C-alpha cells in the first residue's frame, strides 16, 4: 500500500511538472534551433505518439509491479539513448515512424492483456521500440548546441512520462482488472487511430 501511495504521489508530481517544464522549454528563445536541455525536455511532450508510448510503458510496468516498475522504464530509457546516438551518428534508422506507431499499439495491448506477456518478453519488446523513439529524438536534434544536455532533457521527460503511466496504472489496478485492461487497450486504440490518420 505504501508503494502504491508513493507511486501515485510521484506520478501526480510528474503530471503536474510536465506542462510547466514543456512550457518553459517552449518559451526558451530559439529552442527549435539550439540543442540544449530545454529543447530536449520539450521534444517528447510535443508529440502525442511519444507521450502515448511513454505512458504505455508505465502502464505495462504497473501491471507487472515489483522490480519491473523500475526495470521496464530503465530499459526503455537506456535503449532510447542508444537509439538517439544512432539517430545523430547515422542520420536515422529505417522505419522510425512506423516503429513508433507500432510501439503505441503493441505496448498498449501488452498493458491491456496484463500477465499474458512474460516479463522478459516485455523488457525485450520495450527496449526494441525505445530505439525507434530515441532515433527520432536524435534525428530531430538541432544542429548547434550541447548534445549531452539535449539527451539529458529528453531522457528526463521520458522518465517523467513513465512515472505518470505507472501512477495511472497503479490507480487503475486499485479500481480492478477491468480498469487496468481498459487503460492499456485505450492507448492501443489511440495508436491504431493515429496509424489510420484519424488522430
TrEMBL record:
Range of residues in the leader sequence: 1-22
Domain of life: Bacteria
GO terms under cellular component: extracellular region
Pfam families registered for this protein in UniProt: HupE_UreJ (PF04955)
InterPro entries: Dense_granule_Gra7_protein, HupE_UreJ
Membrane spanning residue stretches: 69-90, 102-135, 147-172, 178-198
Record's keyword terms, sorted: Membrane, Signal, Transmembrane, Transmembrane helix
Protein name: Urease accessory protein
Amino acid at each position: 500500500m505504501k508503494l502504491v501511495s508513493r507511486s501515485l504521489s510521484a506520478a501526480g508530481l510528474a503530471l503536474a511538472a510536465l506542462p510547466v517544464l514543456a512550457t518553459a522549454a517552449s518559451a526558451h528563445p530559439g529552442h527549435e534551433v539550439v540543442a540544449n536541455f530545454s529543447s530536449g525536455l520539450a521534444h517528447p511532450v510535443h508529440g502525442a505518439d511519444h507521450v502515448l508510448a511513454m505512458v504505455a510503458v508505465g502502464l505495462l510496468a504497473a501491471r507487472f509491479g515489483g522490480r519491473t516498475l523500475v526495470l521496464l522504464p530503465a530499459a526503455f530509457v537506456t535503449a532510447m539513448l542508444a537509439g538517439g546516438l544512432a539517430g545523430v551518428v547515422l542520420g536515422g534508422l529505417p522505419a522510425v515512424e512506423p516503429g513508433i506507431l507500432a510501439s503505441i499499439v503493441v505496448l498498449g495491448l501488452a498493458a491491456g492483456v496484463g500477465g499474458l506477456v512474460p516479463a522478459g518478453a516485455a523488457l525485450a519488446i520495450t527496449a526494441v521500440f525505445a530505439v525507434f523513439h530515441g532515433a527520432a529524438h536524435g534525428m530531430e536534434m538541432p544542429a548547434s548546441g550541447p548534445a549531452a544536455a539535449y539527451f539529458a532533457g529528453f531522457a528526463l521527460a521520458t522518465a517523467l512520462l513513465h512515472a505518470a503511466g505507472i501512477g495511472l496504472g497503479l490507480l487503475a489496478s486499485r479500481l480492478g482488472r477491468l480498469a487496468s485492461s481498459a487503460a492499456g487497450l485505450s492507448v492501443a486504440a489511440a495508436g491504431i487511430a493515429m496509424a489510420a490518420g484519424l488522430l
